[in-house]
Amino acid sequence: MAFEGLSERLQKVFSSLKGKGKLSDEDVRKVMREVRMALLEADVNFDVVKTFVKTVRERALGAEVMESLTPSQQVIKIVDEELTKLMGQEAVPLNKAPHIPTIIMMVGLQGAGKTTTAGKLANRLKTNNKARPLFIAGDVYRPAAIEQLKTIGQQLDVPVYDEGTDNDPVEIVKNGLAVAKENKNDYVIIDTAGRLEIDEQLMEELQKIKDLAHPNEILFVADSMTGQVAAKVAHGFDEQLDITGVVLTKLDGDTRGGAALSIRSVTGKPIKFIGQGEKLDQLDVFHPDRMANRILG
Ligand code: GDP
């Protein structure tokens, strides 16, 4: 289960406070040292942990005693609020173009879940917005990726614009957008190539697609299982492409929390959706407060 280790650790830390009438400064410091260890073990970025712990500690030490809460409840409340803030405070909706089509470009490393998430998004838009999306198959390096997108397209009854693997992806996107315009599709979802790691050539290609398509949304798809590495890679993509949001995938697995808790702080960009399974309906809006509650158990 996601965040299991972190949740257990934090619950244990906070249970050590139970029954205490008033917390001494030393109690707070001790608890925060434990929280720090728990976050580092969950693979949260070091600087993020440092700032987080400092903020919580200062708030907890300076907190006026609230009659309605026990000292341990008060610390938990502060941790809850700061975790929520760390993950962006509020849900951020998908950007929408003033005129159709809204263009969404999916980017990320290979295997992160770009193609699957493209499908999930189209499914969501069809179901919730009665949208008529079009996919553009921009990953010309892996024939399997095009086939995968076509299969998803068939399942969802969403057309896929592709030119196989022979043409330049920038040209393909250009032609695909012309088709979307002709067919009055209200959303265009561009699937792009990934690599095993950040690579200059790929970034150049993505930059060219961005310059041509002017996407309303550039979603970085991050595999939450990769922990704080996901945040580092997201930062790399953001520096090159100025991403507009993040989708965290594989939160149905036993991910530790490093990606969810680091990515917003490291990139400054909102996590908009979370993937919680392989099926096309397993994409949810990301709510920082609910995620904080899930972590605190
Ligand atoms: P891409 O290379 O970035 O396009 O990645 P894919 O979309 O092909 O996904 C890689 C693998 O991750 C596939 O086996 C997907 O089924 C799986 N996957 C994607 N998102 C999720 C998710 O949210 N949960 C789980 N469990 N698997 C996922």
TrEMBL record:
Family recorded in the similarity comment: Belongs to the GTP-binding SRP family. SRP54 subfamily.
Function as written in the Swiss-Prot or TrEMBL entry: Involved in targeting and insertion of nascent membrane proteins into the cytoplasmic membrane. Binds to the hydrophobic signal sequence of the ribosome-nascent chain (RNC) as it emerges from the ribosomes. The SRP-RNC complex is then targeted to the cytoplasmic membrane where it interacts with the SRP receptor FtsY.
Boundaries of every Signal recognition particle SRP54 helical bundle domain copy: 2-87
Domain of life: Bacteria
Organism listed in the record: Companilactobacillus futsaii JCM 17355
Name of the protein this chain belongs to: Signal recognition particle protein
UniProtKB keywords: Cytoplasm, GTP-binding, Hydrolase, Nucleotide-binding, Ribonucleoprotein, RNA-binding, Signal recognition particle
Subunit-level organization: Part of the signal recognition particle protein translocation system, which is composed of SRP and FtsY.
Keyword Nucleotide-binding on entry: yes
Domain notes: Composed of three domains: the N-terminal N domain, which is responsible for interactions with the ribosome, the central G domain, which binds GTP, and the C-terminal M domain, which binds the RNA and the signal sequence of the RNC.
